[in-house]
Write a structure and sequence with these properties.
single chain, 15 helices, 390 residues, alpha/beta
């Protein structure tokens, strides 16, 4: 019997694939005119044939390909280009894909949209972009309660971010993706952000950090004095470099250290945090290091003395993490316990692999994960993050 049989399964990481002109549909004229090209400009000539073919297929122009995609959602070669994937940008297809996969819900992140405004030097564009993206994500997910939209919030102006968080909650955003780097000289745990955490805690909307939340390897570390091929690889939508992979967790780990050591999770015990597509191999060491920091240096820090539980216990209580399908998830489970890890597919991004169900199942079977541990992994930890009931 496979893990999928007779089990509720939630997907903690999936994506909407933006197409040219999508974000503009939800933006004001001012924001529309000032959006940046983004990580990968969607109007580049190289992408136009892909998008055109995908739109024609969705409209019924290639039923044979549609049938082929549905028969092999993860494995079809079209997934490597993402726009042609089944349900990449069409909500009815995405809903059907959940039926095919047997998923009870799916947390759906944007892909490229935030890169068009998140670091804009004009705050009106940055916050107008947040509003547009959030409206678009809610619109994509509105017809299927299993599709849970993730919004985005810029933290450069705490007051505007607070209003943005309130607006996002009101419009139906189910999780809020933020940056993990320190902004304008403020620690992530700065008290100016407390009203935001209060709003999210009360609404049961978790904070999510995702690949792209923080800066990775500094450009100086890429300068080897040797000219390298800089051609764009469209099979890797996030443009993650090999050196980046090893440091994806550095910014989020700094973020969480501040949130725990400076008492934010103490003050907001029901605020939930999701670490998504950042790997999990680093989490056991982080938990040990957090505890060690307090045991070795806590007597020198008045704030650390106010913590009512061990730092690692805040992680167990409030933080949920998606392992990569290529990691030894069974080993991580045995290292961090049953209450932290969550199943995910990263659909339709290629980083999720061609068989995420099988990859996770083999790794968990290797450590003889029991039914309680499997239920936590596939459903209950996600339900805890999202405030869902089974």
């Amino acid at each position: 019997m496979t893990h999928k049989e007779n089990r509720i399964i939630h997907d903690a990481d999936a994506h909407f694939i933006e197409y040219d002109g999508w974000l503009e549909k939800y933006a004001t004229d001012f924001v529309k005119e000032n959006l940046l090209p983004g990580l990968i400009p969607l109007d580049m000539p190289l992408l136009a044939p892909l998008m055109d073919a995908a739109k024609k297929r969705v409209a019924g122009g290639n039923p044979e390909l549609t049938a082929e995609l549905k028969a092999n959602l993860f494995g079809h070669k079209a997934k490597l280009k993402q726009w042609p994937a089944f349900g990449a940008f069409d909500s009815a297809e995405r809903s059907e894909s959940l039926d095919i996969l047997g998923l009870s819900s799916q947390l759906i992140f944007p892909t490229l949209g935030a890169s068009r405004f998140a670091r804009h030097n004009n705050p009106d564009v940055a916050y107008g972009g947040c509003d547009a993206l959030n409206r678009g994500m809610v619109d994509f997910c509105k017809d299927d309660k299993r599709m849970l939209p993730v919004g985005f919030m810029v933290l450069s102006d705490p007051k505007r971010a607070l209003q943005g968080a309130k607006d996002a909650v009101k419009m139906g955003v189910r999780a809020l993706w933020i940056g993990s780097d320190a902004v304008d000289g403020r620690a992530p745990s700065h008290v100016a952000y407390d009203p935001i955490w209060a709003v999210l805690e009360e609404a049961g909307v978790p904070v999510t950090l995702h690949i792209g939340s923080g800066r990775n390897m500094h450009g100086a570390y890429m300068n080897t004095g040797v000219e390298k091929d800089k051609s764009l690889n469209l099979t890797n939508i996030e443009s993650t470099k090999p050196k980046d992979l090893n440091v994806l967790h550095h910014s989020p780990e700094r973020w969480l250290t501040c949130m725990i050591y400076d008492g934010v999770l103490e003050r907001f015990p029901n605020l939930k945090i999701g670490f998504v597509e950042l790997g999990s191999n680093w989490v056991p060491a982080m938990m040990q290091n957090l505890d060690m920091g307090v045991s070795l240096l806590g007597r020198f820090d008045a704030e650390l003395k106010k913590l009512s539980i061990k730092p690692s216990e805040y992680v167990e209580r409030q933080v949920r993490v998606t392992p990569l399908h290529t990691e030894d998830t069974g080993w991580v489970l045995r290292s961090v316990g049953k209450d932290i890890l969550m199943f995910n597919t990263d659909y339709p991004h290629p980083e999720g692999g061609s068989d995420p169900f099988g990859d996770f199942e083999r790794s968990l079977d290797a450590v003889s994960a029991n039914d309680v541990e499997l239920d936590q992994f596939y459903s209950k930890n996600f339900e805890d993050l999202m405030g869902l009931t089974a």
